């Protein structure tokens, strides 16, 4: 038996340990307006050294000046309470017009001529559908083995009935089966489309006509060489050429891959902006200078005002009773508890202020870099990364990621997630690869090239010829956007 090899080594490593205050600050930075409001009220409930001085409705909080006594919940003004009651009454008076998929399918199933066993099985099948209309559990698992009337044949019959209810294509295992069910119910379905959907869905990847025709011909050619395989008369007389493939592809695009999405039972969600961006009138912007701390951005002679939506965020402060006690009775018992509460309250307030400052300056950077978007709207985003903001603000890239998460910006062009403004470069206009164009700009340029080409082709029908992806790539290069042909094909398909 050999002796164990014992050795001693000394390693040196650098580990950054974050304090509880830093962790709390990052958590608050990542919160949206509603989450921050909830966090403030939760902290006020937990720490009596923190009070709310003003609520979202603008009512002042009543603070008792007695020793360590405070009314920590915001009290709305009488006008605010009356308006809140009226708003609540209006909401309760509105009928919920949303209809769930299950209710809609059941209302159709119950008028069918089915046996009680078939009806019960149909109800279980409908209750087993997800928000897309597909099975959650395998349908066979819903059969009651103790009932002889429930067998595979009955299951197929009831599933077939549900699949043909409105919306058609529900009660299927996946998108491919749903598309086939929808196509089989359409009298105008091309034979080639039924062939593609019946076990040959992979022929549509990519959805290019020459590729589809080539794969289909190769399939039947290989099939003809298998002598032991019985002939399938289902596809007799089917034409396989570019025209048939184009007709089949156009038909398949009219089908709905997720037939139940309009009947989702999920409650409607409403997004409130965290940041507002407005352009300042020239008359008012004459003497304004750029100042991110005040939310003022100047670019190309135009001025934008960036402001935070603070209406839903209550104002907080340290409880004056605690401050008075700490200043005059510091030597009494409980001093550590009082001072600890005050310290936590100040750290919480500091974290909120840091969040507001980082969010304001970060959004100013977005407006500064994406000024073409705020001037001209969607389709004019420049390549912009989170690390670019981090470098200017002097923070880590993950801090910018937390700042942009779950927050929305309202401008004249609509409501957008902050992450919408961060896009990677696709093509470059320089030999060193710098100055890349964004995906947004490339897709806009492709759409413009196609429109211009189609306008020219309509004027001269004899010269009408489809514009190739490589030609578009070359034309983009002339505009300073080096984009590969495959990338052009991808974006072109998304635009169709």
Key words describing this protein structure:
496 residues, alpha+beta, five-stranded mixed sheet, two-stranded antiparallel sheet, 9 strands, 46% helix, extended
Walk me through this protein's architecture:
- With 496 residues, the protein is an alpha+beta fold.
- The protein has 19 helices and nine strands.
- α17 crosses α19.
- The longest helix is centred in the last third of the chain and has 35 residues.
- It is extended.
Largest sheet: 5 strands, mixed
Structural class: alpha+beta
Instruction: Report the strand count.
Output: 9
State the helix count. Answer: 19
- What is the terminal-to-terminal distance? 74 Å
Rg computed from alpha carbons, rounded to a whole number of angstroms:
32 Å
Indicate the mean pLDDT: 80
Trace the largest sheet across and list its strands. Answer: 3-4-2-6-7
Secondary-structure element order, N to C: HHEHHHHHHHHEHEEEHHHHHEEEEHHH
Instruction: Please state roughly what percent of the residues sit in beta strands, choosing from under 5%, 5-15%, 15-25%, 25-35%, 35-45% or over 45%.
Output: 5-15%
Shape estimate = extended
Q: Which ranges are low-confidence, i.e. pLDDT below 50, for 5 or more consecutive residues?
A: 62-79, 91-97, 429-435
Percent of residues in helices = 40-55%
């Amino acid at each position: 038996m050999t002796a164990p090899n014992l050795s001693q080594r000394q390693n040196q490593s650098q580990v950054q340990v974050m304090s509880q205050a830093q962790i709390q600050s990052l958590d608050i930075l990542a919160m949206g307006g509603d989450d921050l409001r909830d966090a403030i009220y939760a902290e006020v409930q937990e720490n009596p050294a923190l009070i709310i001085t003003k609520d979202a409705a603008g009512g002042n909080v009543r603070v008792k000046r007695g020793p360590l006594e405070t009314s920590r919940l915001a009290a709305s003004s009488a006008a605010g309470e009356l308006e809140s009651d009226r708003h609540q009454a209006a909401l309760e008076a509105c009928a919920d017009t949303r209809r769930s998929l299950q209710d809609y399918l059941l209302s159709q199933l119950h008028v069918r001529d089915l046996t009680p066993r078939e009806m019960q099985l149909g109800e279980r099948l409908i209750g087993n559908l997800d928000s897309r209309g597909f099975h959650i559990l395998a349908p066979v698992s819903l059969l009651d083995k103790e009932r002889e009337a429930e067998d595979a044949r009955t299951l197929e019959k009831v599933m077939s009935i549900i699949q043909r209810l409105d919306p058609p294509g529900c009660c299927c295992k996946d998108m491919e089966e749903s598309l086939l069910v929808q196509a089989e119910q359409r009298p105008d379905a091309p034979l080639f489309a039924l062939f593609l959907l019946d076990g040959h869905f992979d022929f549509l990847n990519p959805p290019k006509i020459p590729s589809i025709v080539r794969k289909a011909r190769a399939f039947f050619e290989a099939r003809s060489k298998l002598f032991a395989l019985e002939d399938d008369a289902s596809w007799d007389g089917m034409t396989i050429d570019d025209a048939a493939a184009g007709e089949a592809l156009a038909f398949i695009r009219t089908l709905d891959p997720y037939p139940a999405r309009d009947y989702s039972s999920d409650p409607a969600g409403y997004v409130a902006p965290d940041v507002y961006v407005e352009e300042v009138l020239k008359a008012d912007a004459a003497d304004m200078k750029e100042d991110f701390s005040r939310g003022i951005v100047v670019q190309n002679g135009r001025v934008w005002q960036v402001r935070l939506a603070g209406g839903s965020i209550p104002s907080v402060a340290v409880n004056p009773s605690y401050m008075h006690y700490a200043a005059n009775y510091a030597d009494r018992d409980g001093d550590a508890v009082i001072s600890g509460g005050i310290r936590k309250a100040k750290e919480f307030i500091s974290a909120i202020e840091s969040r507001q400052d980082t969010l304001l300056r970060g959004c100013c950077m977005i407006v500064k870099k994406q000024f073409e978007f705020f001037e001209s709207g969607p389709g004019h985003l420049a390549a912009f990364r989170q690390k670019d903001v981090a470098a200017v603000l002097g923070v880590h890239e993950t801090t910018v990621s937390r700042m942009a998460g779950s927050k929305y910006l309202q401008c004249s062009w609509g409501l957008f997630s902050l992450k919408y403004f961060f896009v990677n470069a696709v093509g470059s206009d320089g030999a060193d690869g710098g100055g890349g164009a964004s995906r947004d700009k490339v897709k806009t340029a492709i759409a413009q090239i196609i429109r211009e080409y189609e306008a020219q082709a309509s004027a001269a029908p004899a010269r009408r010829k489809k514009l190739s992806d490589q030609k578009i790539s070359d034309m983009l290069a002339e505009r300073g956007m080096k984009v590969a042909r495959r990338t052009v094909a991808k974006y072109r398909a998304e635009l169709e």
